[in-house]
Amino acid sequence: LLPRWAVPGGPHELRTAGGDAEALWRKAVVSEKFPFLPEAEGDQLWAVAGSPVTLIIGYLALVNVWAFALMGFDKGRAKQKGARRIRERTLFLSALLGGGLGAFLGMWTFRHKTKHWYFVAGIPLIALAEAALGIWLWRILR
Predict the structure, then answer these.
(1) In degrees, to the nearest 5, what angle opens at C-alpha 105 toward C-alphas 119 and 98?
(2) In terms of pTM, does the model score above 0.70?
(3) Ranges of H-type helices in 1-116
(4) What is the C-alpha separation between 28 and 76, in angstroms, rounded?
(5) How many Å apart are CA 59 and CA 36, to the nearest integer?
(6) Burial (CB count within 10 angstroms: exposed 0-12, middle 13-18, buried 19+), residue 106
(7) In whole angstroms, what is the distance from residue 104 CA to residue 74 CA?
(8) C-beta separation of 133 from 139 below 8 A
(9) Residue pair 105/117 in contact by the 8 Å Cβ criterion
(10) Whole-number Å distance between alpha carbons of 2 and 5
(11) For 96-140, what is each residue's pLDDT tens digit?
(12) Which residue of 5, 31, 59, 97 is surrounded by the most CB atoms within 10 Å?
């Protein structure tokens, strides 16, 4: 392996542009890998919004807790006669929006919807697909 200073297009070639060569090189690499991100001088955007990784992890944690709670709430409602229930499509939607693991754990913790084949097959498949997507994205973007 070559040292970073010997890599073609590395920071050593940006020294004539002025400023911090390492920062310029990282900016070029980030804009190449993430063309959809807005440019912010000095990372002002992420200073306000936080790291994108932190935001994604926070979102996934929130959605999984929500999906878990929905399963528990609906199980409680299922025990009551005549109580309004949560629609099955809402339970699936919470799983599809990133809460596959929470829905799966809620389904088995509360023993809810375990007799419906489409839940027994669908929720674990959604959780596996989300895990595969996460691993793929992690490998691509790191």
Answers:
(1) 75
(2) no
(3) 21-33, 44-49, 52-78, 88-94, 100-109
(4) 53
(5) 19
(6) buried
(7) 14
(8) no
(9) no
(10) 8
(11) 999 999 999 999 999 999 999 999 999 999 999 999 999 998 888
(12) 97
Residue 32's Cβ-count burial label (10 Å; 0-12, 13-18, 19+) is exposed
Tokens of 1: 């392996």
Q: Which amino acid makes up residue 27?
A: K
How far CA 135 is from CA of 13, 138, 139, 140, in Å, comes to: 33, 5, 6, 9
Contact 28, 20 (CB under 8 A): no
What span, in angstroms and rounded, lies between the C-alpha atoms of 142 and 139? 6
Whose CA is closest to 138, among 53, 29, 62, 31?
53
Query: What does the CA dihedral 19, 25, 30, 33 come to, rounded to 10 degrees?
Result: 150
User: Tens digits of per-residue pLDDT, 44-65?
Assistant: 555 556 667 778 888 999 999 9
